[in-house]
Fold:
Amino acid sequence: MTDMAATDILRAERLAGQALAASPRSPLAHSAKGQVLRAQGRPKEAIPEYETALTSDHNWVNAYNALGYCKLYTGTIDGVIPLVEQAIHLSPRDPEIGNCYFRIGQVHMVQSRTDEAIVWFEKARSVNPRHPQYHAYLASAYALKGETERATVELVEARRLSGDDRYSSIARLKAAAIYFGVPEALALFEITFFAGLRKAGVPEE
Structure:
């Protein structure tokens, strides 16, 4: 959501470092550092930052969902849903609740529980129908179930809402989404999410 992502991330990295130097026990500072590491495609390194934030403040809602994100994209999926469920429990009316629903759906998808994944992706979409990623994952899940027409509708919507052409091909999506550069994440999503998108009609190149 910026034309200067690299510059902004470098500035965020510097500011997070300054915050940690000034307040090494601050959950906000550790959470900010974790956000920077996520943006840099370094989820393994972000995990201890979020864990430190939660040690200092067990009610730090965003850290639960972010930690779940990092565990998912490093292949440590067993602990993801409990973390996200805790975020929902602490803030059931959170403006970002759609991301929590979506994260649970992702776990079900990579574990080949497609019906359960669809339930959670649909919940995420109902909260924020303008989020292209929710539609893309629904397109994949519907296609995996053989529901071609529904998959096509969702794929068209994902492409319409996206600010770029990432959903025009598998190669472009992998290049645009930094977390697919993490081998553990790519291995999980290759046989589920990307397989579904191929069935939905997304070309390789």
Summary: The radius of gyration is 17 Å.
